[in-house]
Amino acid sequence: MNLTSRIQACTIGGQILVSETTRQEVGNRLKIGKQMEVRAKGVEHPVVLFEALGIGGRHKLSLGETADTLIELEEEIPLRYEVVESSQVGGALSKGVLTKVSLKAAEARLANNVPVLSNLKMHLIGSDGEQIAGSLYGKVLGAVSGTSNGVSIRFTSISPEIEAVLRRLIAEASPAVGSDT
């Protein structure tokens, strides 16, 4: 039960991860995607996890592809963030900026190094320097290549206020459909 909880904590929205044991039990019917090695709390050795993309055999089920295009922002969005530990918030706030966004993910530059698979609670800062109402939660997926402190973040929860802000920013940054200019 503890290992299952640790594996679940590594997932992002819509993702299914399985251990080596589960992968072996299911056999070659399981369609596998990415593989990763994590150090799970309370487990002596690193755990190899596999992303389950589908299952064959009589089931013939697969998870849909989740292609997501990040929109580069004309103006970076300042934010304050904190790392969420074991479902508890309350750590020190650090600064960062969002540089690219979609409704599911973002790229950001963070003031401090944040380990991969860390959960973040983020507060966006408006152009007036005030915090925008609502919260944004995400999981750090990894470093952005070609940057020293850039990270890729997958959103895990977005308040309606923040979703409205993101929708507006994406609409403003996207080329107008049917525009003559």
Architecture overview:
The protein is built from 3 helices and 10 strands, in the order αβαβββββββββα. The protein is an alpha+beta fold and 181 residues long. It has 2 domains: 2-62, no CATH class; 71-173, Beta Barrel (Thrombin, subunit H). It is globular, with a radius of gyration of 19 Å.
Index terms:
181 residues, alpha+beta, Thrombin, subunit H, 2 domains, 6-stranded antiparallel barrel, 4-stranded antiparallel β-sheet, globular, disordered C terminus
Give a summary of the structure in a few sentences:
This protein has helices at 2-8, 20-26, 160-173; strands at residues 17-19, 30-38, 47-55, 61-62, 71-84, 94-101, 105-110, 119-124, 136-143, 150-158.
DSSP summary: helix tally? 3
- CATH level 1 name of the largest domain: Mainly Beta
Overall pLDDT confidence: 83
The SSE order reads: HEHEEEEEEEEEH
Query: Radius of gyration in whole Å, from Cα?
Result: 19 Å
- Count of individual domains: 2
The residue fraction in helices comes out at 10-25%
Spatial separation of the terminal alpha carbons: 58 Å
Structural class: alpha+beta
Q: Fill in the CATH topology of the largest domain.
A: Thrombin, subunit H
Number of strands: 10
CATH superfamily membership of the largest domain: predicted glycosyltransferase like domains
Strand order of the largest sheet: 5-6-7-10-9-8
Helices and strands in order, then pairings?
Blueprint: H1 2-8, E1 17-19, H2 20-26, E2 30-38, E3 47-55, E4 61-62, E5 71-84, E6 94-101, E7 105-110, E8 119-124, E9 136-143, E10 150-158, H3 160-173
Antiparallel strand pairs: 1-3, 2-3, 3-4, 5-6, 5-8, 6-7, 7-10, 8-9, 9-10
